[in-house]
Amino acid sequence: MSLKRPILRDLVLLAWPVVLSQLGHVMVGVADSVMIGNTGTIPLAASSFANSLFVILLVFGIGVSFGLTPLVAEADGGKNKQRLSLLLGNGLMVNSLVSLVLVALLFMGIPFMDFLGQDSEVLDLAKPYLKIITLSVIPLMVFLALKQFAEGLSDTKMAMIITIGANLLNVLLNYLFIFGKGGFPEMKLLGAGYATLISRVIMAIAMFIYIARSSRFKEFVGGLSFHKYNKAMVLRILKIGVPSGLQYIFEVGAFAIAAVLIGTIGPVPLAAHQIAISLASVSYMAASGIAAAATVRIGNERGRKNFAAIRQTGDAALFLSIALMTFAGLVLFFGRYLLPSFYTDEAAVLGLSTSLLIVAVVFQISDGLQVVGLGMLRGLSDVKLPTAITFFSYWIVSLPLCWFTGIYLQGGVLSIWISLAAGLTLAAVLLVWRFRVLTKWIAIAEV
User: Fold this and answer.
1) Which helix (H) or strand (E) holds 312?
2) 218 FRET partner, CA 20 to 30 A, in 19, 92, 150, 151?
3) Nearest CA to 236 among 368, 117, 74, 371?
4) What does the angle CA 116 – CA 253 – CA 239 come to, to the nearest 5 degrees?
């Protein structure tokens, strides 16, 4: 691994606002889980079940939005301002249409929740909550289109500020709506849903105002006109975005199906799973910020045809990922008794959560490497084989192991988590190998 300090420093400067922005997204879920957990185990289990289904399609939409970033970074590296203007308008159009499709699919899927073997009390709470958070997909996808465009131009700080502000608003609204404070009715789980919806609408509005009024983006705003639709550009965005979305579906979908399997065991294991996955997702989203920065910088170097810097940027991203996830693993290990206590005081849930966090400690580095590996390869517009790798790792290897060890052999939730860790590790090894092989080919071609 070859590290050059200027490249590492440049990557850190680009990555830290993205890391905080990504943490802001996941902290919305963490805040919801902590506050919902204080209303009881059944609401927490209902939140876990609903979010397990919701997140499958949500991450597909997020992946589609990532199709914009490497194209923007490459055009920026090549100083192609006309292409940048078209990418802004067409990227926003793609995200908006995809969000409407996702909302329709989620609403059509709600009646089928009855057939997933969950506790009836959990189902009664999960259905209306899912309807509310589903609507938040539309403003979130608008925000992401604008955010990914800005990040492709290495402007990462405003999205961070808006995300953190929306997260603080979400916590405040949770307090008011869930517990019935400030004259509002006590809505419990539904209140968390409304808080998420409102905060995401404000995120989209704030980011749109910034893009429209900022002098930096003024020359690109003309691309927002509908008549600027460009079929070839839309197809380029989707060519990267759809496989990227599938990559996230294969990984997050595996965890979602694992949650459904855990739900068939009982509400207590499902609540423990929600706590552990909520905490583990914090470090995952931080690593995805490094992945996003790697996508941008590798895309820039590709546009400049600076092929030696591509490998060096990848090495820097892998180094940052290992350092970050090592630190995260230590936090989870030493906080394994304290952190779950913020969610609930039920002894059975706390004991199981502590055990799951030990597994999370073990897979931290693998989780970071696989998400950064995807980001690096996305910067090279290499998405087809990485998509196949994620499918194989999670759906061919990990999920069958989850069912066999956790359900058939009755190993329970702990066995299911160990099986998920195996899938993450396999994906990490294969994706890093793919990047190193691909950059070796690029170096040979350059010679």
Assistant:
1) helix 307-334
2) 19
3) 74
4) 135
Task: Give the amino acid at 403.
Answer: W
Radius of gyration of the chain (CA): 21
- pLDDT of 312 above 70: yes
Listed in sequence order, the residues at least 6 apart from 277 whose beta carbon sits closer than 8 Å to its beta carbon are 48, 255, 259
208-241 pLDDT tens trace: 999 988 888 877 776 566 556 788 888 989 999 9
- 335, with CB counted inside 10 A (0-12, 13-18, 19+), is middle
Q: What integer pLDDT is reported at residue 447 of this predicted model?
A: 40
Give the chain's largest Cα–Cα span. 70
Distance set, CA 415 to CA 72, 264, 438 (Å): 42, 14, 35
Please tell me the total count of domains within the chain.
1
Residues 159-172, buried b or exposed e (16+ Cβ, 10 A)?
bbebbbebbebbbe
Name the token pair of 317: 């991203």
DSSP 273-288: HHHHHHHHHHHHHHHH
Composition of the chain by helix, strand, coil, percent to 5:
85, 0, 15
Measured distance CA(275)–CA(286) in Å, rounded: 18
CB-facing half-sphere around the CA of 49: CA atoms within 13 A:
36
Report the residue count for the chain: 447
CB distance 118 to 126 below 8 Å:
yes
Own/partner long-range contacts of 229-232 (Cβ < 8 Å, ≥24 apart): 229/89, 229/90, 229/93, 230/86, 230/90
CA pair distance 262, 258, nearest whole angstrom: 6
Identity of the residue numbered 14: L
Six-digit token string for 174? 């949770």
Neighbouring C-alpha atoms within 13 Å toward the C-beta of 442:
20
Structural domain of residue 81, as residue ranges?
5-446
17 to each of 113, 250, 312, 389, how far by Cα in Å?
Answer: 38, 27, 21, 29
Highest mean pLDDT among 81-95, 212-226, 304-318, 420-434: 420-434
Report the sign of the C-alpha dihedral through residues 369, 375, 376, 377, in that order.
positive
Q: Which helix (H) or strand (E) holds 250?
A: helix 231-265
Q: Name the one residue in this structure whose structure tokens are 């970074």.
A: 73
Q: With contact defined as beta carbons under 8 Å apart, do 357 and 332 qualify?
A: yes
pLDDT digits (tens, 9 = 90+) for 45-86: 888 788 878 888 888 998 899 889 889 888 887 788 888 888
Model pTM score:
0.78
Six-digit token string for 95: 């995200």
